[in-house]
Structures
1.
Amino acid sequence: MHDMLSYIWTTVLLVVALSTLRVSSMRPGGLLSEAVRRDQVTRVMLPSGPSQGLEERAAPFRFYKNNTKKYLVESLPEMDFDLGELYSGVVPIDMNNASRGLFFVFQPRVGEPVDEITIWLNGGPGCSSLEGFLQENGKFQWAWGQFSPTINKVEYPVGVGFSIGESRARTEEGIAEEFNDFFFNFQKIFAISKFKIYVTGESYAGRYVPYIASGMLDRNDSNHFNLSGALTYNPTIGEFGWVQTQAVIYPLIEKYNNVLGYNSSFMAKLASIDQTCGYVDYRDTHVDKFPPSQVQPPKYFNSTVDADCDIWHAAYFAAYGANPCFNPYLITLQCPLQGDPLGFPSDLIYSYPNTPVYFDREDVKKAMHAPVDREWSLCNGNPFVEGQGGPQNLGDMSADPIQRVLPRVIEATRRVLVANSDLDFETPTTGTLLAIQNMTWGGLLGFQNKPVKPITITEPDLQYEAIFASSGFDDVDDPQGTMGVQHFERGLMWAE
Ligand SMILES: *[C@@H]1O[C@H](CO)[C@@H](O)[C@H](O)[C@H]1NC(C)=O
Ligand SMILES: *[C@@H]1O[C@H](CO)[C@@H](O)[C@H](O)[C@H]1NC(C)=O
Ligand SMILES: *[C@@H]1O[C@H](CO)[C@@H](O)[C@H](O)[C@H]1NC(C)=O
Ligand SMILES: *[C@@H]1O[C@H](CO)[C@@H](O)[C@H](O)[C@H]1NC(C)=O
Ligand SMILES: *[C@@H]1O[C@H](CO)[C@@H](O)[C@H](O)[C@H]1NC(C)=O
Ligand SMILES: *[C@@H]1O[C@H](CO)[C@@H](O)[C@H](O)[C@H]1NC(C)=O
Ligand SMILES: *[C@@H]1O[C@H](CO)[C@@H](O)[C@H](O)[C@H]1NC(C)=O
């Protein structure tokens, strides 16, 4: 058990601090802004291409075979370094009918091979997991310390990113089934068997991850679905229309108004909504109770009837007044607005001039074996075909994961991590913890004890060490120190 935790723990150290940078969007900005399309700018491609012969270069690759050849990524525009072993492309959900499939990126571990696969999913719903690949935990961003041995990312569900075919997303159970069909086919193609499988993701993937993991358990196939753990960052695992957002946003605003910068009359207005709409009472009853004194009542935010109680959106839109570079995924960011090769530096769509959206470039699509006729944007809009209905009115008809699938995955693996970063306006930490406190696993409701154990990072500063040294500042470069709080009960680890 200790070993297993330390493995997951290593994972968190490298990623949690930065995951706030870009948790995929799940509300207006993100979903609305996809309507904005920018002109394509043509760009001169750097000469690229391996100097060595392909077969020679690929000879040491573990998964390189006749039938995986077509997925090998030989080079990528703008990346003038050896990509190592990297595959991407579309694998059908049904091998007998290629009309619907999921797009994946597969980066085997650098160094000693391990028989493990970590699946990473971004959220939205409707946002592409290529964000994670390029900006959060891919080989390129994290070349100095891969957070997990093997990374495998998928554009999920159908309708997102480069995945092909019409979307049929209605329930999490249904799309998890499609994912697992795809994943089985993927393993067949890459001759993968008897690997340990970890399912991970962030934001709305807080719903995908437990449903996929639970679907894996249903398969009774330990050769292909040996689920060994799961991890989610800033996840929408509970009721997020009311509890994980509206009910908990005011304390976050109050704590960070030194950077958010709302004026005093607006703060007074927010405080009054917080009080009259029952959010204060709810927090008084349920926050910071270990063990929880009671099960939480059902909650639902009806955006028509409850419009006057929409403190979250009131504050969200006003935040741009005080700070035009407001980033709801990392509230401390100030101007200038940072250009983004994926065109999505916050909920605003922006990249530096002459920087087309990387994965929408034809040369990049070709290099990655992606459908060239498919327009790529970071978030494609809600992939759930009904568009409304379900517990959060997004057309996703499945129950909140805390109700059944997440407890099941924790009990089966005893190795699940839920982590939340504090500077996220979209999914505040208090709300995620409230969701956990309304979940029964291992026979008990919620955590029994208050999370207090510090996360102290004593590793040297690997990221900036060289810069400090070359600037003559090596003696002032400290390890990161205390970064947060960790807690473990009955197979579930929490980190904030
Ligand atoms: C791979 O393809 C080559 C050329 O088509 C063939 O000679 C070789 O036998 C194939 N290898 C396997 C393992 O199928
Ligand atoms: C493949 O699936 C599509 C729907 O995705 C369907 O329209 C088509 O008829 C199927 N083709 C075959 C050969 O079954
Ligand atoms: C599944 O993983 C467990 C450890 O998590 C391991 O003990 C077991 O042998 C694996 N099963 C298979 C079929 O690989
Ligand atoms: C998996 O095993 C359980 C319990 O043995 C059984 O109820 C279920 O039908 C099995 N599922 C499949 C897909 O074989
Ligand atoms: C809390 O859990 C109970 C029992 O599963 C459920 O009925 C209720 O809707 C949940 N409340 C919230 C806010 O998640
Ligand atoms: C919200 O409330 C209105 C008015 O009562 C009702 O017509 C509508 O169906 C509700 N929406 C949902 C999704 O429950
Ligand atoms: C305070 O902020 C609100 C929301 O941004 C704005 O509508 C209002 O005009 C501001 N009041 C003053 C006095 O600046």
2.
Amino acid sequence: MSKVPVFCGRDCGGDACPLLAEVEGGKVLQITHNPAAGPYVRGCAKGFDLAHFHDSPERIKTPLLRTGPRGSGEFAPISWDEALDRVHRGLVNCRALHGDASILCLSSAGSTGALHNTERLTRRYLNFSGGCTVLDASYSSAAASYALKRAFGGDYGRSGFDAATMAKSSFIVLWGANVLEARLGAELPARLAEARRRGVPVLSIDPRRTRTLAALGAEWLPIYPGTDVALMYALLFQLHRDGRIDRRYVEARAAGFGELLDFVTGASDGTPKTPEWAAAICGVRAETIVGLARRWADAEPTMLIPGYSIQRTESGEEAARLCVALQLATGNFGIPGGSTGSLNNRLPAPRVGSIGEGDGSRNAHVPIVRWADAILEGPPNYPSRIRAIYSAGGNFLNQGADIAKNRRAFAALDFAVCHELFMTPTACWCDIVLPAASPLQKEDIGIPWAGNYLLYKPQALPRGDGERSDYEIFAALAERAGLRGAFTEGRSESQWIDAFLEASEVGDIETFKREGIYFGADQERAGLADFAADPGAFPLGTASGKVELEDRRWTAWKGAPGGEAFLLVTPKRMDRVHSQGGDYPRAVRENRLEINVEDAAALGLAAGDLALIESVTGKTTAEVALSGSIVRGVVSLPEGSWFAEPSAGGEGALPAGASNALTSTEGTLESRSCVMHGVAVTVRKA
Ligand SMILES: Nc1nc2c(c(=O)[nH]1)N[C@H]1C(S)=C(S)[C@@H](COP(=O)(O)OP(=O)(O)OC[C@H]3O[C@@H](n4cnc5c(=O)[nH]c(N)nc54)[C@H](O)[C@@H]3O)O[C@H]1N2
Ligand SMILES: Nc1nc2c(c(=O)[nH]1)N[C@H]1C(S)=C(S)[C@@H](COP(=O)(O)OP(=O)(O)OC[C@H]3O[C@@H](n4cnc5c(=O)[nH]c(N)nc54)[C@H](O)[C@@H]3O)O[C@H]1N2
Ligand SMILES: [Mo]
């Protein structure tokens, strides 16, 4: 029996969790915490369960060719050679007939890592063979990136914080951040627990009383989804009314704060954003808002940890911008134990090489939330006429907004191919499905979302003929195009890893490979601390050298639910990475609708009933789960249920528990970012 370091490299907010696998006879017997990582950086149950994911009997173990209608789930096994020849020919034909931009790269972060990065590898292959249409930004954080890049300019990439700085916090605000369930880094949970042991109060602003809140013994501030900006304005109003804003301090660090304050006080539009005004919109009592403003200003310092949820709403850009304004207004910006209000993953990881995407300068671009519209509409609304899809490590038919539209888009294609481990809805709608190797079958370097460390994993288990790494698949396709040398640069997978390490800051590579973790020197970075301490000496990479809070507002909140309508949230599940879980029993996989007990009673719904949920976009059914931990007027249907089982497949089948049957591809006003929370729906017995 040998013990080797491993990590998942899946897209669940850690990306790099230090695990240790016990391997014997070509099997992983057990996965535990890697002690070399120390007590703080830790994996979760999904990682400890990685061997089951790998061993699942549901894994696709041979290349597949579609034999029935798209979406029917009817496939026949074919050889690797035939599959790769068909993919090559399909793409070559598409390029010849419709141009390079007729191929859409629909890959996602199914696998992350320095080498086995599904999105980067797909782009590399498509870029080397002529180019394609790519998706801009991400479902994750497009609105925040948009707003924060404007606020911080070139310094957006160093505006986060290391979790260890929480040791200096006196008050921690989790704003739509459910970090023990929807992980935002492998170190936050242990650091938060430690802060609680020191007696530091933690407040969770969330429409749901989450397990994070319960586990930490945090206070709950319930709020309607998509209305956070109203509460943020009112906090700024109250801070101003209490004389708690040091204008000289703020104006030395921010441009445009005066205009923001004029809006908040009502000087510019006649509506003071008082706590009473906000209470009617966000459902938080005025006294509570007044109290929170005072606590925020009194604590030295207050750490604001925004989740990504609050920017996956109609006012997403504004919520991101106001987080920054709040930290500036309260003097907590850029100090250890405080935060800039930016996303926590905005600090560099240790220097290390990674696979390049090649030259993408000829590519056409589409906002991610609009990919199905781009297929269905084409020019002049979108830059290219898309006829083919290449997808590796993504299940966008299910995970993108508006599943019905996504199915129509797939149905309209000439050709679609994906690499998958499981027969997902997206795979079901492809022409060719290529079986991908699991995380345990790939050597790689893990680069975390948040944290100053790197992980290493050797290939823990061999690959059979039934699965290939995404890299191998692309290399074989490149070979068919006469591009193998260009794609591989003559390197094997292992040689790439060595090259990345040579280009890295890791001194003792042997120890790194053996222990599986390397820590960068400074573990307590407070983003933009230099600028915050001395803005004159360390100006930001913006036009003014300061944080830019432009005089514009991106407010489009729906406000309190009215009449028959509920506001839907579609959060992450603790036990799943997005829609993954093809290895779970269906009953576990299918999400239930969480609804407040009193709302359910008013609708005549009992636990276990089937509810019909409808939005302007579409409808879905889900089993009812009664809850005392969700705000009245709000319902929660987690993301990730597959919209239909492969066998139930085709058109007409009503999606079961699929939240994206209800979401729209419209996107937020300014940056066209997805809106996955605060969606107006009606609920009744099916
Ligand atoms: N277990 C697990 N963890 C993950 C992932 C996963 O798939 N599984 N995915 C990772 C990825 S890719 C990402 S981008 C991040 C996303 O991380 P987040 O976007 O932060 O995660 P969500 O679960 O969508 O939302 C977090 C919390 O916000 C609450 N919420 C929803 N809407 C609102 C709102 O309008 N206002 C407020 N105040 N709260 C709201 C929800 O009830 C939920 O408890 O998570 C990462 N972590
Ligand atoms: N309603 C709603 N929808 C959402 C969200 C939400 O909050 N609510 N969140 C959004 C967010 S933040 C995100 S990031 C997206 C995520 O959307 P996706 O990226 O589509 O998420 P996954 O379901 O994780 O799909 C990844 C797929 O990759 C496969 N895979 C795993 N490892 C490998 C590998 O090594 N190689 C290959 N080829 N495949 C592999 C998995 O089996 C899985 O099917 O979803 C978005 N959709
Ligand atoms: Mo994400």
3.
Amino acid sequence: FLLFLFLISFLFSSIFKVKNGMSIELTCIVDVSKSASFQMQHTFLFYKDDSLLHNTTSEQNRTRYKISPARFADSGIYKCIVEANRKTKSSNDLEVRVEGLCQPKLTALKGEVTEGEVVTLRCEIPEEKPPFIFLFIKISSNQQSQEKRKQELKANFASVEFPVEERDRILRFQCIAQVNSVVGSETSEPSSMTIVTVVEPFSHPKLTSKSPWNITEGDRIDIVCTTILARPYEIEILIQKDRRILNSTQGQNSVTYSATATVEHNGNYTCKVELGRVSKTTSMNIVVAELFAKPILTPSLTDLDENKSLSLWCHINGSPKANFSIVKRPPENGILLKTSSNFTIQAQVNDTGSYVCRAEIKGIIKESNPVQITVYGESIRRFFPDLRETLLLRCQSMFGTPPINYTLFRGNRLIDTITVYNNTYAEFRDRQTKLNSLREYRCEASNRHSYANKSSYKMNITVIAPVRNISFGSLPHGEVEDGGDINFLCVVSEGSLPINFTIFKQNEQTPLFYESIMETRVLWQKKSLTKQDAGKYFCEASNRAMVTERSNLLTVKVILASWQKGFIALFVLVVIAIAAFGFWWCWRKKEKGNNEYLLFSGC
Ligand SMILES: *[C@@H]1O[C@H](CO)[C@@H](O)[C@H](O)[C@H]1NC(C)=O
Ligand SMILES: *[C@@H]1O[C@H](CO)[C@@H](O)[C@H](O)[C@H]1NC(C)=O
Ligand SMILES: *[C@@H]1O[C@H](CO)[C@@H](O)[C@H](O)[C@H]1NC(C)=O
Ligand SMILES: *[C@@H]1O[C@H](CO)[C@@H](O)[C@H](O)[C@H]1NC(C)=O
Ligand SMILES: *[C@@H]1O[C@H](CO)[C@@H](O)[C@H](O)[C@H]1NC(C)=O
Ligand SMILES: *[C@@H]1O[C@H](CO)[C@@H](O)[C@H](O)[C@H]1NC(C)=O
Ligand SMILES: *[C@@H]1O[C@H](CO)[C@@H](O)[C@H](O)[C@H]1NC(C)=O
Ligand SMILES: *[C@@H]1O[C@H](CO)[C@@H](O)[C@H](O)[C@H]1NC(C)=O
Ligand SMILES: *[C@@H]1O[C@H](CO)[C@@H](O)[C@H](O)[C@H]1NC(C)=O
Ligand SMILES: *[C@@H]1O[C@H](CO)[C@@H](O)[C@H](O)[C@H]1NC(C)=O
Ligand SMILES: *[C@@H]1O[C@H](CO)[C@@H](O)[C@H](O)[C@H]1NC(C)=O
Ligand SMILES: *[C@@H]1O[C@H](CO)[C@@H](O)[C@H](O)[C@H]1NC(C)=O
């Protein structure tokens, strides 16, 4: 038989658009020509995007394939292929667009949350296929919405968390799903509204003042702050002013602050309740009226010379009756001078200082601003030449108030001027002076004191030169005959007079010689030396400069005198002579053959 598969077509034109949720019916028709009338099987194959979707076999020349409900994921390119009696024919492509997405479903983990917790939401779009972008929207009571976006590649749902904020009471949420693919992008309708209610663990605190609205200094202030607890939570409640905590309690629902009002209590009070991450505050302004103004201390003068009269007057604007006292500083607490509004003294230098006055009415004490008083003393009373250091002179004023200008003169010659700010003395060095000379120095001093424009002090000073270069010698040098004399000479090259010279023998405590003389050398004779006087000697010199110089050691030997040497020589000669005579006598006896020979054992 003959068979031709002629036309095969979908019932629709090339692009087919359908709304999401509607159904699509695809009909595949084959036009068959055959030579005889007989029944024949047709295999219909439906493809979407080149992958097999459905196949069916029929004797009919058409078949239908239904997609219901149509979802976005069903968008694509469809075709159908018919096989009959080993012949195949393909239809043209049909593009199907499913428009829109179905509505997502939003659920909240809890329908009621406590402040400080978070709201967990899940948005689901059951019949559609990922990937999706989910958009969560929080609609606040103040109409300001907050959004969170989440991309989901594999699942058809997503979860997010929204923190609960202060003042959140009833929260409304919605979600929207979006899909993007090669066929285009679609956005769903918003989900239906999900409502979450917020439970307050405690109410906003209430801050009240028990005292009347207009408080005056000296009145009592009672501030109470309370909150209402939903359950007995361990809350902390406190009252603060300018970041300073005035009182606080824990585990109670109220706190109080009580005090006697002063102007310092003026201001903004805040009550704060805290529980974990939740904190709520309330503020209140308190105005305290002044009972009386701060006192004013008025001095007659602030800078004055000693012995002048100084008056201090303490008063309050509006002159109400008050108890006054006048206090001087330092020390920190002050010294009470007088419990009266007026105070008059004849000023002394030690009255220099800071003064304040205090006024007391109804137990409220107020202090004036401090007033600085300076009493200037006479600039100079004494002059201290410092003799320890040869060229250093110190000029000092006992009670002078700095700054003081000091000027030093040698004779009529000005040496130096020094201004001191935080001392009462000046130190001068006179480098030009001649040592060992008597000079008249004069020191002048002046300060702001008007009585003594220039105080001066004169003094004659000898500049002392310390002893230097000591040398020690003797005559005769080194050796002295027993019984002979020795002359010691001790000399210094330099040194102011008088000079104290001392001569010592080594290892002996008491000096052999001591003299204070108006010369730079001393000669001392020691008579009739014996062997005991042999040894080492030295000398020392010192003067008012308090420097002691010690000489080299000098060795003294005591030797025999010349007459003693002669005596010894004579004695030796006599002995030799006797021996010679004895010898000669022996020899004579032997020659004569005399037996008397034995008398001389020495022969
Ligand atoms: C399909 O078959 C029916 C009878 O079964 C016939 O009436 C109709 O003309 C055929 N259509 C085509 C296009 O061959
Ligand atoms: C059509 O489906 C049947 C069973 O449903 C299957 O055996 C056959 O292989 C399919 N044809 C094609 C071409 O896939
Ligand atoms: C306090 O308020 C009362 C009533 O408003 C008023 O009569 C009184 O003068 C006020 N006192 C002060 C000190 O402001
Ligand atoms: C602070 O609070 C405690 C307890 O409420 C109270 O006894 C105390 O007087 C308060 N202190 C002040 C300064 O108000
Ligand atoms: C008081 O202080 C609070 C917190 O510091 C502030 O929010 C408020 O505006 C202040 N009120 C006044 C009247 O200054
Ligand atoms: C101040 O008075 C004291 C005591 O009467 C007196 O010694 C001193 O010299 C006076 N000072 C002046 C600068 O007059
Ligand atoms: C205190 O001194 C002031 C100013 O010197 C004077 O006006 C006032 O009368 C004095 N008061 C008394 C109580 O002396
Ligand atoms: C101040 O000095 C005077 C003497 O000049 C003395 O009588 C008085 O006690 C001193 N005052 C103080 C506070 O040291
Ligand atoms: C004294 O005053 C001078 C100049 O004002 C300053 O440089 C110095 O540090 C001060 N010395 C002391 C001990 O205060
Ligand atoms: C101290 O000397 C300086 C500079 O020479 C001068 O300006 C000042 O007036 C002098 N002060 C006094 C109190 O004499
Ligand atoms: C210092 O010595 C000179 C000369 O000897 C004498 O005229 C003068 O008065 C002396 N000065 C003092 C302050 O002693
Ligand atoms: C010098 O001798 C005198 C008199 O003995 C004594 O007063 C003085 O302190 C001595 N000086 C020195 C510097 O040793």
